[in-house]
Write a structure and sequence with these properties.
This protein is mostly beta strands and about 70 residues long. It has a domain at about 10-45: Rubrerythrin, domain 2, CATH 2.20.28.10. The protein contains no helices and 3 strands. A hairpin with a 5-residue loop joins strand 1 (about 10-15) and strand 2 (about 20-25). It binds zinc ion. Zinc ion (ZN) binds next to loops.
Length: about 70
C-alpha cells in the first residue's frame, strides 16, 4: 500500500542554515553543497530534530549476577 521511503541521512549546515539530505549509505558531505562551508560546520540531524535522543541511555541493564 504505502511505499517505504528511501532512508536519508540529514545534515544541518550551521553556516547557511540549510538541511542537506544524503542517501543512506553515502558518506557525510565534506562541505556544504549550498555555501561550501567546511564539514565541521555540518552537523548530523536525526529523526525528531535537534534533540539528542536516539543515543539515550539504553545500556542500563540492572541485572545482578550472583
Ligand atoms: Zn551551508
Amino acid at each position: 500500500m504505502s511505499e517505504v521511503p528511501i532512508p536519508k541521512k540529514r545534515f544541518y549546515c550551521t553556516n547557511c542554515g540549510r538541511v542537506i539530505e544524503v542517501p543512506f549509505g553515502a558518506p557525510k558531505p565534506h562541505q556544504c553543497p549550498y555555501c561550501g562551508a567546511h564539514h565541521t560546520m555540518i552537523h548530523r540531524l536525526d529523526r525528531g530534530g535537534f534533540g539528542r535522543g536516539w543515543r539515550g541511555g539504553r545500556n542500563i541493564n540492572l541485572q545482578k549476577t550472583t
